[in-house]
């Protein structure tokens, strides 16, 4: 069945392996990729993730107590999500069934759950249903998982690289134990490499690794154990083909000819990098902002997404401290549409530098937030009668505009073009929403606004 395969007794097939071939544990075949052969078989073999492996942790209690509980695993690629699903299956003696979020539809999801339900009815094994990249499922597909989870026909283990609070439906999130996996440290990745070099499941001590080459592989892995083992396998193959018994730096560099960036535009780091990018501009660090901009460029981030965030930032964090900020950001966004990448990287970089070095003010966002808070709290009131529309027949009889007890004063007839009169409803007549700062060009705005406000309010 497309998008669905089962491995009785536990082992999950790795991407690209033959379904049902036993790609994990004792059944792993010798030609399987190194990353598959070295996949941990117990929780204690898992690299990093001390918070999940600790004694008394929810995951350890679930496995050692053989409990039926659905898991939602959230973390960057190569941190052990698929491995944990396999361990749950192996150490609890459950069937392991994987549904591909890329290829499967609602039909395949329901078929997997129906099969698990039938197995239970026959008195057979319970089923671990592993859904990788669950964020790729539509709402309807995620909804199809709910009956199996609610009735515990399956132990669902769903993995995602994206923030589940954005990508997973609330009913599924509330019915699952959410476990957050952290990126592996360089020490964790180095330990994974050492184990693969020595273990009989891996390279069996047949080849060595120079320290410089190790540092190179660890750096390129970017906290991803699977990537580290893939690079190691490529380097070992290159060394063996030239008769070397030790992988040196030159061999490692040749085998791994593309640098890895610690950023996954489809993963959780997408949110982390864009957050750091915005905060760096807000903090006026142009160099840091350019670093994160470069990381997004190299990872293939959509430049329109970057441009949109700059347009928002121009009003949220710069505002009237530099009235040209919004113009600059909008111009960069238009340049992205007009020119496209890679040339538009120059326009985005110019906008980033301009916004980073610009004086900052958040007076715009605090003003509109305060105004909306009053409206939501019910502080609305009636529009003053002298400001209401007076152009239609009968308006004067209703006391609108010129017929109001207090007539409307035309501002252009007054000195300085400013009239003393009430504009806001009575409920918020004394509200002060816009509080300009003394930074940049907003200092002049502040001075003028204070004078104007005194005239308008009669202060």
Word description of this protein:
The chain is of the alpha/beta class. It has four domains: 4-180, P-loop containing nucleotide triphosphate hydrolases (Rossmann fold), CATH 3.40.50.300; 186-255, Orthogonal Bundle (Helicase, Ruva Protein, domain 3), CATH 1.10.8; 269-357, Zinc Finger, Delta Prime, domain 3 (Up-down Bundle), CATH 1.20.272; 367-457, DNA polymerase III clamp loader subunits, C-terminal domain (post-AAA+ oligomerization domain-like), CATH 1.10.3710.10. The protein is 47% helix and 7% strand. The chain is built from 19 helices and eight strands. The chain has helices at residues 34-37, 50-53, 58-64, 81-91, 106-121, 139-150, 164-167, 170-174, 186-198, 211-221, 225-241, 249-255, 269-282, 286-298, 303-318, 324-339, 344-357, 363-376, 442-457; strands spanning 4-7, 71-74, 95-100, 127-132, 155-160, 177-180, 208-209, 246-247. The chain has a six-stranded mixed beta sheet with strand order 1-3-4-5-2-6, with helices on both faces. The protein starts with a strand and ends with a helix.
């Amino acid at each position: 069945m497309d998008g669905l395969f089962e491995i009785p007794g536990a082992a999950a097939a790795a991407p690209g392996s033959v379904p049902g071939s036993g790609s994990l544990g004792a059944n792993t075949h010798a030609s399987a990729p190194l990353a598959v052969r070295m996949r941990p078989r117990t929780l204690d073999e898992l690299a990093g993730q001390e918070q999940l492996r600790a004694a008394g942790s929810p995951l350890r209690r679930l496995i050692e107590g053989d409990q039926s509980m659905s898991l939602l695993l959230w973390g960057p690629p190569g941190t052990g999500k698929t491995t944990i699903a396999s361990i749950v299956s192996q150490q609890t003696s459950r069937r392991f069934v994987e549904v591909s979020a890329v290829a499967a539809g609602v039909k395949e999801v329901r078929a997997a759950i129906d099969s698990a339900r039938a197995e239970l009815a026959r008195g057979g094994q319970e089923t671990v249903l592993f859904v990788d990249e669950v964020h790729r499922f539509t709402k309807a597909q995620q909804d199809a998982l709910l009956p199996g989870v609610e009735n515990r026909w399956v132990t669902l283990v769903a993995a995602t690289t994206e923030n589940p609070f954005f990508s997973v439906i609330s009913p599924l999130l509330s019915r699952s134990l959410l476990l957050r996996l952290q990126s592996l440290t360089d020490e964790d990745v180095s330990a994974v490499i050492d184990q693969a070099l020595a273990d009989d499941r891996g390279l069996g001590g047949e080849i060595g690794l120079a320290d410089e080459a190790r540092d190179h592989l660890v750096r390129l892995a970017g906290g991803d154990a699977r990537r580290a083992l893939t690079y190691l396998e490529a380097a070992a193959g290159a060394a063996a083909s030239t008769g070397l018994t030790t992988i040196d730096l030159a061999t490692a560099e040749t085998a791994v000819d593309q640098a890895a960036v610690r950023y996954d535009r489809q993963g959780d780091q997408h949110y982390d990098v864009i957050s750091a990018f915005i905060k760096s501009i807000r903090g006026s660090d142009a160099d840091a902002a350019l670093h994160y901009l470069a990381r997004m460029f190299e990872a293939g981030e959509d430049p329109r997404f970057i441009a949109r965030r700059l347009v928002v930032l121009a009003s949220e964090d710069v505002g009237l401290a530099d009235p040209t900020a919004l113009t600059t950001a909008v111009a960069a966004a238009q340049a992205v549409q007009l020119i496209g990448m890679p040339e538009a990287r120059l326009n985005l970089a110019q906008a980033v530098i301009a916004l980073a070095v610009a004086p900052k003010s958040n007076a715009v966002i605090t003003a509109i937030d305060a105004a909306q808070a009053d409206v939501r709290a019910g502080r609305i009131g009636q529009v003053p009668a002298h400001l209401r529309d007076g152009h239609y027949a009968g308006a004067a009889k209703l006391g609108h505009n010129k017929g109001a007890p207090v007539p409307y004063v035309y501002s252009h007839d007054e000195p300085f073009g400013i009239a003393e009169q009430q504009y806001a409803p009575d409920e918020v007549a004394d509200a002060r929403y816009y509080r300009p700062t003394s930074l940049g060009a907003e200092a002049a705005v502040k001075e003028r606004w204070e004078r104007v406000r005194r005239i308008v309010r009669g202060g």
